[in-house]
Design brief:
about 725 residues; lipopolysaccharide transport protein A fold; mainly beta
Length: about 725
């Protein structure tokens, strides 16, 4: 509400007027001492009394200066006192902002004055303000009597605020007498008086509460207090009541000391009366730039127990929420370094919280990981190129073997184009990996160990293309405003060899610790569809509307897998990737692995996104991995008729026949207000960690004032 009363002070545009000092006629131009350009005055009658130095204009009076226009039936300007009076259907316009009143009085020197029976419209935020009398009392001080405020265009607005009297001091405070909130003309909320800050900057104060209901845990009320600590930092304090669970506290702290040094920290705590234990979560992000272009970034995510992400999913930041759902873990990282044109340095520390286990004693942490990389570049200005790098990692954990690992992996390669058609690139990359194991309870590893290997590669590729005029497919070309299309086919074949390394005595922490024996041919092709826009601008150019990539490998060494008869399978799965941007209405993404031996798919992931001109939307996602993933996710939003939206999402685990989470809701969008209801239906997980729960939430938005409750992500599809 503090914003609407601040806007009332915009009556100051009345005071942006003129300082004339010459005579007039029916149409005159008056010079001014300040501002831009002269003042033009038109009227049916125009007179000047020399003795009293008073100008008068009557009948269709119009004053113009730039985009500021004042119209009325009558106007009088006293050059001695600098008093200006306009009366009779007065209309003051500045751009698209309009003030209508019956009488305007002001002094051009003091900039003080009054307006009577005023109606103000501010286009930027669609503010409609009325006042029986508005007066400027001094520098940044205003008084408004019998005023009202709304952002609704209707003659009888669905909602409005009124006040018997309002006194405002900009960058100070406002005092309202008898503020009342009306819904459809019915007074719904009243205070004898109100005190509120009036500042152009961020303001300290209570935020609108959020209301909800859980069938299992009872009513929910979520409240917050915003603290504008300084220009470069602020904080939000939360106190939520979650029914049977009890009270939950929270703190968010944000800072931006410079454009390169900023971040936030979030802390949540609840003495959970259902689980009979203290539960908490901490999340932090930070980035900072140091002299000589060094940088530091951090992302910390931690929860007190493995069930916290399921019970309080909305507390987790976006990336942490995705990791907890898909990977069953939370990752915290702190990294920094520097980038040069041809090299880069990176130091990183990573800590993992495994949400699938009760303890992280055996979880491997990388504390730290340091690398120095060289980007592809010429070797001493010869046709040879090189890249690669060196890295060091310390693997740490409370229980189990730990180790230091150093890895050196340079690559030397020679790119060449044959007959201006074939692109050929051959390379060789020796690799040296050194280990120092310690704290091994099994005494399996002997301390210092090393592994040496080499990787040799050759790849041959080419490109065929054809260009089509947009008229050949006129309907699609008009839809995307494309003048020409280019279709490319890029076949490739490559060979890769790496001998069988001696690594049985090395500890295993990640994929780098067990390098495969490679002796294989890889072949495939990539197709692209590129469109050139009808009119190219500075930020536009050819766009890739679709891509299809299919490839497979054949092993000349060890087979990829073996069947039940121990017969080796030397053909790898056929891997494919397709994405097609039918934007603005349809787009699709797909990737899959097909086994030629069984004739079926071992992996399949697809996403289709549809949207129409009515703002209906549909997202359909299917995820499948033969061993552990099989689920379908559907999200939709439809608009049965203009003000009403219906939305819903469906997330189902096909392996365990588990309804993970369903969300249903409706939103009614009027011109100046929005009201929505959501129902969140969570199913019980097979392991019992997620419990069955049904929650209801209501949210309301008043245009120009703010929101009560949280709008669901489905309305942003």
């Amino acid at each position: 509400m503090r914003y609407c009363w601040f806007i009332l002070s915009s009556f100051v545009i009345l005071l942006m007027v003129f300082h004339p000092h010459v005579t007039g006629a029916k149409t005159v131009d008056l010079k001014v001492e300040k501002g831009e350009g002269p003042v033009e005055i038109e009227a049916d009658e125009f007179s000047y009394e020399r003795d009293s130095q008073v100008y008068e204009a009557h009948g269709r009076v119009e004053m113009k200066r730039g985009d500021l226009t004042l119209k009325g039936d009558h106007a009088r300007l006293n050059m001695t006192t600098k008093d200006l009076v306009a009366w009779g259907n007065v209309v003051l316009r500045e751009g698209e902002d309009v003030l209508e009143c019956e009488r305007l009085e002001m002094n051009l020197d003091t900039r003080l004055g009054k307006v009577y029976q005023a109606r103000l419209f501010l286009k930027d935020q669609n503010f409609h303000i009325t006042s029986k009398e508005a007066e400027k009392l001094g520098e940044n001080r205003y008084r408004i009597r019998q005023g009202s405020f709304t952002t609704c265009d209707a003659t009888r607005p669905p909602w409005k605020f009124t006040a018997k009297e309002l006194e405002v001091t900009l960058e100070g405070r406002g005092i309202a007498r008898g503020p009342t909130f009306y819904i459809e003309g019915i007074p719904s909320f009243y205070l004898p008086w109100g005190l509120f800050p009036v500042k152009r900057e961020r303001q300290t104060g209570f935020l609108l509460p959020r209301l909800g209901y859980s069938r299992k845990y009872g009513p929910e009320v979520k409240s917050a207090f915003y603290w504008a600590m300084a220009k470069d930092m602020d904080a939000t304090l939360y106190l939520d009541y979650l029914g049977d669970r009890g009270f939950k506290e929270g703190l968010e702290y944000r800072y931006a000391f410079t454009p390169e040094t900023r971040g936030e920290a979030i802390f949540r705590f609840i003495d959970d009366q259902v689980f009979h234990r203290n539960r908490y979560a901490f999340f932090a992000k930070h980035q900072q730039k140091f002299p000589y272009d060094f940088y530091l970034k951090g992302n910390i995510n931690y929860v007190s127990d493995n069930q916290y992400p399921r019970d309080f999913d909305e507390d987790l930041p976006g990336e942490a929420r995705i990791d907890s759902r898909s990977k069953g873990q939370l990752r915290s990282t702190l990294f920094g370094g520097k980038n040069w044109d041809r090299f880069s340095f990176l130091a990183e520390a990573s800590v993992f919280q495994d949400l699938t286990k009760k303890s992280d004693d055996e979880t491997v942490q990388r504390l730290p990981q340091v690398s120095f990389q060289g980007h592809p570049q010429s070797l001493f200005h010869t046709p040879l190129f090189f890249d690669g790098g060196v890295s060091y990692t310390r693997f740490s954990r409370d229980q189990g073997v730990e180790a230091h690992r150093g890895d050196l992996f340079p690559r030397l390669f020679f790119p060449v184009r044959l007959f201006n058609v074939l692109k050929v690139e051959s390379g060789v990359a020796p690799r040296e990996t050194l280990y120092k194991s310690f704290n091994d309870p099994t005494r399996q590893f002997k301390g210092w160990e090393s592994r040496e290997t080499v990787v040799a590669t050759t790849e041959i590729s080419t490109e065929f293309y054809r260009i089509y005029e947009g008229a050949a497919v006129s309907k699609i070309s008009r839809l995307y405003r494309v003048a020409k299309w280019m279709h490319t086919i890029e076949p490739m074949i490559g060979y890769q060899y790496s001998p069988r390394p001696d690594q049985k005595d090395l500890p295993v922490f990640d994929d780098l610790d067990r390098l495969p024996y490679l002796n294989q041919i890889t072949y495939g092709f990539t197709q692209r569809l590129v469109g050139k826009p009808v009119q190219e601008g500075v930020n536009s150019g050819p766009l890739e509307y679709g891509k299809l990539r299919i490839f497979q490998s054949y092993s000349l060494g060890d087979p990829f897998t073996r069947d039940s008869k121990n017969k080796g399978r030397r053909f790898s799965n056929i891997q494919g990737e397709l994405w097609w941007n039918f934007s603005p209405y349809l787009s699709a993404k797909w990737d899959a692995e097909f086994t030629p031996y069984h004739g079926n798919f071992e992996a399949w992931n697809g996403l289709i996104m549809i949207k129409d001109k009515r703002d209906d939307a549909l997202h359909v996602q299917y995820r499948y991995a033969q061993r552990n993933i099989k689920e379908v996710n559907i999200s939709t939003r439809i608009k049965p008729f203009s003000p009403l939206y219906l939305f819903g999402s469906f997330r189902y685990n096909l392996i365990d026949h588990w309804k993970v989470e369903n969300l249903y809701g409706a939103e009614y969008q009027a011109q100046c207000w929005t009201l929505g209801l959501t129902v969140e239906d969570k199913g019980r997980s097979p392991d019992g960690l997620q419990r069955k729960e049904l929650k209801f939430n209501v949210y309301l938005n008043l245009l120009g004032l703010g929101s009560l409750g949280k709008r669901p992500y489905l309305m942003g599809l």
